[in-house]
Design goal:
10 strands; Rossmann fold; 190 residues; alpha/beta; globular
Length: 190
């Protein structure tokens, strides 16, 4: 499986830090091989808003492996282009295992694939649900700054919310990066 990272409009070192945190547990210790292929969209100005730019990146990197599964992780303004690109990738024959929107407040999320929202506070989590979310989502508690979700997902504590059993049933307290690993394992197995 390939993980497609679609950053927002911010300093590139924040994305480097985010990807480093993902890579920490991304190895099979018995073989020392990476479990997933992490591809980071290079951003230049507002290119993260462009579904065309993201789709071109995917065809450049995965064109001959279009049927291999991908998972999108997008952040902030990057959610805008990424959700459209994920749908276009699927329409063109690609296998989208899941889409994760980190702090994509105000962005409608629709797709024929599992969608998950991660929010930096409860208000963002609550107010984003009307624009589309999946059954398994995450929100930070205590609230954190917007960029902390991307810069330091390993330090952000919060709640995994399983909407299939109701909002009042909070499943588990964990960190943002643990929530991501949980999703990786779920979609890697399926």
């Amino acid at each position: 499986m390939s993980i497609i990272i679609c950053p927002g409009i911010h300093e590139p070192n924040l994305t480097e830090t985010f990807v480093a945190r993902l890579r920490e547990k991304n190895y099979d210790t018995s073989t020392s091989k990476s479990l997933v292929n992490i591809l980071v969209l290079p951003t230049d100005g507002y290119s993260s808003l462009s579904a065309f730019h993201i789709l071109q990146f995917l065809f450049d990197r995965l064109g001959n492996q279009q049927k291999s599964p991908v998972m999108f992780i997008s952040f902030s303004a990057g959610v805008v282009g990424a959700i459209a690109a994920a749908s276009l990738w699927q329409i063109s024959g690609g296998d989208v295992k899941a889409f994760i929107a980190i702090d994509g407040w105000g962005v409608p999320l629709l797709g024929n694939f599992p969608i998950h929202r991660m929010s930096h506070d409860y208000f963002t989590h609550w107010s984003s649900k009307i624009l589309g979310c999946g059954q398994n989502n995450f929100y930070a508690d205590p609230p954190v700054e917007h960029l902390d979700m991307w810069r330091s997902p390993h330090t952000v504590q919060g709640w995994w919310v399983d909407l299939s059993i109701g909002e009042s049933q909070l499943q588990k307290r964990l960190s943002a990066v643990e929530f991501l690993y949980m999703l990786f394992m779920r979609y890697e197995e399926n």
